[in-house]
Each structure stands twice: as structure tokens, then as C-alpha cells.
């Protein structure tokens, strides 16, 4: 299985990076080294493992397969180094819940077995020079994305550094908001999964395609309020994770906020790319773009929804 090959690649890279960083004492370094430096070496191992596996296999979804796993690895590592700090335990539980849900959703779409994210295939067609593509593989697909994951998990390191304080109101708010957004992302992904599965079934059985199935994209449920409600929930869960920083330090501003900021920027670029594909594929997507919020959930604009229905009927006629 691809995931087992990836795990083996990352374990080898981890042993190599920890050995090099510790000058031959990886276990001592892991348990007694500076937690920020050790975790940065874990991040480097993930980068190297994913880069090598993608280059060797030609499958560039290696980082995608670790996206839901790496935050829990960092959070658990910081928790073990600060055991038994209650705030760190809570943060690890949240990271595990988030990762488990995302992993299950990714698995049912074939992400751990056969499916490479379609966006990498499109980008490979645009970056045709093999040297430039491997540079893109190292610096963005593996490098930047793993660095991004590392950054938005660093509030757990802050909680470790300033650990020992009691759970406070801000901790509780962070937990409740995180869980609410997790429920939102779960609902959005489930709605999209059911829509895509039903669309495939109707196409394979030769049934007529009406409504969203005729348009080709989902515009109901949570997708009435945001074109990307799952992305919105994903990003703001990690803003909620950052709330543990002021809960730990008493200060709202800390340099680790850059993780949440850069994640927000990353997702804006991802949304732009996805929407450029959808707009080219589905003629009515432009109407949907004008009516429904790009990112933050909000009520649809007042343009008459019947325009979409009438155009869909005309196209099928």
C-alpha cells in the first residue's frame, strides 16, 4: 500500500535527521533536546520522506496523505514532553479528532491507496520542465506544505513552554469553537460526498440530471452559504487552536499566529485554483460565484435563483 511505503520513507528520513541533528544520539535528542528544534527535525523528515516518495513513484499526493497525521504527531510530542499538562492533553485530543475525521474522509475517496489529487496532474501539465517540476515538488508540495502544517500546530509548543497554568475560560471557548467548526466541516464534506456519489450513480445508470446534478456542482446545504464551507471550517479551526496561546501566555499576539495567517493565505490560493477549474468545466458556475460567498458563510446575494434553473433547463433541452 502507498501509505505503508510513505511511512517507511518518513521513518528512514526521521532516523537520519535525528541522528544527524544529535550527532549520533537520536533517542536522547528526542526525549531531552529542545522541543522546538526536535519538532523542526521531525518536520524536515516529513519533507524529505514525501519529496523522495513523490519523485520515485510519480505520485505527488504524498504530503496530502500526511496532512491529517502530522499535526497530531507534533501535538502529541509536545504533550509527552510536558506531561501531564491538561491544556496540552486537550490540544492533542482536538488534533487527533480533526486528523481522524479528515483521514477517514480522505480514505473513502481512495487517497491512501490509488488516487492522486487531480490538481497535481493539472499542474504537471503546466510545469513541463522536469527539473522545475522537482524543484516545485521539493519547495512547495513537500516543503512549504509541511512547513505550513508545522507552523499552525506550534501553539502546542507555546502551551508547553508556558505550561502548568489552570484551564481558563479562553481554553473552553477555543474547545467549543473548534468542535463546532469540526462539525461544520464534517457536514460539508458529507454533503459533498453524497452529492458526488449520487451524481456518479445517475450518470452510470443513464438517469436524467436535474438541479445541481445537471449543473455539475453542489449549491445546496452548506454550499448555499459558502462556495467552500469545508475550507472555511478547516482554516478557522486552526485559528481557534491559536486561542490556546493567549490562554497560556495572557498575551493575544505571539509570532506563532503566523501559522494561522499563512494557512488562510494558502487556502485562498487553493480556492482560486479550484474555482478556475470549476468555472472552465461548468458553464453555470459563474452564476453561482456571483450569488454565493467565496469563503465566509453568508446569505446568498439577491440575484434571482430562477436564472440558474432556467438556464439549466435550456441547456438540457
Question: Which descriptors apply to this entry?
Answer:
317 residues; mainly alpha; 75% helix
Fold and architecture overview:
There is one protein chain. The chain is mainly alpha-helical. The chain has helices spanning 2-22, 26-32, 35-57, 62-67, 70-81, 86-108, 118-126, 130-153, 155-161, 169-205, 211-215, 229-242, 244-249, 257-281, 285-291, 306-316. It is built from 16 helices and no strands. Helices cover 75% and strands 0% of the residues. The chain folds into two domains: 1-156, no CATH class; 168-317, no CATH class.
Number of helices: 16
Identify low-pLDDT runs: 303-317
Secondary structure tally: strands: 0
Strand share of the residues? under 5%
Task: Summarize the amount of helix as a percent range.
Answer: over 70%
Class from secondary-structure proportions? mainly alpha
Shape: globular
What is the C-alpha radius of gyration, as a whole number of Å? 22 Å
Q: What oligomeric state best describes the polypeptide chains here?
A: single chain
Summarize the biggest pleated sheet. Answer: none
Measured between the Cα atoms of the first and last residue, the distance is 46 Å
Listing every helix as H and every strand as E from the N terminus to the C terminus, the arrangement reads HHHHHHHHHHHHHHHH
Mean pLDDT: 91
Question: Into how many domains do the coordinates divide?
Answer: 2
Amino acid at each position: 500500500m502507498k501509505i505503508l511505503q510513505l511511512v517507511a520513507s518518513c521513518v528512514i528520513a526521521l532516523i537520519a535527521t535525528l541522528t544527524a541533528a544529535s550527532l549520533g544520539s537520536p533517542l536522547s535528542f528526542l526525549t531531552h533536546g529542545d522541543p522546538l528544534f526536535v519538532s523542526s527535525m521531525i518536520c524536515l523528515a516529513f519533507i524529505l520522506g514525501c519529496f523522495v516518495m513523490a519523485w520515485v513513484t510519480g505520485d505527488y499526493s504524498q504530503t496530502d496523505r500526511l496532512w491529517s497525521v502530522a499535526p497530531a504527531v507534533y501535538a502529541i510530542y509536545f504533550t509527552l514532553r510536558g506531561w501531564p499538562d491538561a491544556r496540552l492533553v486537550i490540544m492533542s485530543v482536538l488534533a487527533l479528532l480533526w486528523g481522524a475525521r479528515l483521514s477517514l474522509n480522505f480514505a473513502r475517496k481512495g487517497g491512501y491507496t490509488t488516487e492522486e489529487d487531480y490538481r497535481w496532474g493539472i499542474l504537471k501539465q503546466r510545469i513541463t520542465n522536469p527539473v522545475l517540476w522537482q524543484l516545485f515538488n521539493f519547495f512547495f508540495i513537500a516543503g512549504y506544505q509541511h512547513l505550513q502544517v508545522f507552523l499552525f500546530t506550534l501553539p502546542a509548543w507555546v502551551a508547553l513552554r508556558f505550561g502548568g497554568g489552570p484551564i481558563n475560560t479562553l481554553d473552553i471557548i477555543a474547545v467549543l469553537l473548534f468542535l463546532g467548526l469540526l462539525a461544520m466541516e464534517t457536514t460539508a464534506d458529507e454533503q459533498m460526498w453524497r452529492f458526488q456519489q449520487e451524481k456518479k450513480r445517475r450518470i452510470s445508470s443513464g438517469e436524467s440530471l436535474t438541479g445541481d446534478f445537471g449543473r455539475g456542482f453542489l449549491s445546496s446545504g452548506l454550499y448555499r452559504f459558502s462556495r467552500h464551507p469545508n475550507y472555511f471550517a478547516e482554516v478557522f479551526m486552526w485559528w481557534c487552536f491559536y486561542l490556546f496561546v493567549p490562554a497560556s501566555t495572557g498575551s493575544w499576539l505571539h509570532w506563532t499566529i503566523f501559522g494561522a495567517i499563512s494557512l488562510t493565505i494558502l487556502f485562498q490560493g487553493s480556492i482560486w485554483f479550484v474555482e478556475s477549474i470549476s468555472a472552465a468545466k461548468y458553464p453555470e458556475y459563474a452564476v453561482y460565484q456571483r450569488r454565493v460567498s467565496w469563503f465566509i458563510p453568508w446569505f446568498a446575494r439577491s440575484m434571482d435563483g430562477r436564472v440558474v434553473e432556467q438556464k439549466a433547463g435550456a441547456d438540457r433541452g
